Task: structure prediction
Amino acid sequence: MLRSCAKRLRALGSLRGPLPCEPRPALRSFSSKKVVYKDFSIPNPSWSKDIRLLFDEFMKKCEDGSWKRFPSYRELTKEDLRTQTRLFTSSFEEGLGFEHVIFCNDVEKRTVCLFQGGPYLEGMPGFLHGGAIATIIDTTLGVSAAIAGGTVMTANLNINFKRPIPLCSVVVINTQLDKVEGRKFFVSGNVQSADEKTLYSEATSLFIKLDPDKSLT
Result:
């Protein structure tokens, strides 16, 4: 597994090519120039065969509108953000950190994340760090809550780690919106191998919808 990971990393230099970018208007404090934002939720040379096959499978499900793919950018488009800020899961260079794409089904209230953890996320030698796993679980659960509630923040996250995840392997994170009580959104999920034969983790969470009229500070 580590040899295959290293092989993909060595290939990045020679295989790296232009990927589709989506222009999005973003005003900077120093300029009003339009910024082109790169979508990091599409295949790049570091993606393994497993995650590419799963990506193609879910893209076909998107054709009839039952599933939707979430784009992933490094920055938010708000004028008052410092230019140095980046979304954590998109802050690494290709192939080194959180390679992932999220799909959602509004009718079934389900969200699926295809995730490949790069070598900069290592914990024990040869395995993903537990904090990296928790991050991608929290991200996927949060998307489920945000679809239903808008802007939300994690209030509680419980994870049962059942097996370590090999570095650079591909896993599938399945989440489900279980219940809504006012501003509270309860979501659960699990992490499985690409072939669904191995269960790595299970999680439950509580997200709170933020009041847009109240400041967090």
About this structure: DSSP finds three helices and nine strands in the chain. The chain has one domain: 2-209. The radius of gyration is 18 Å.
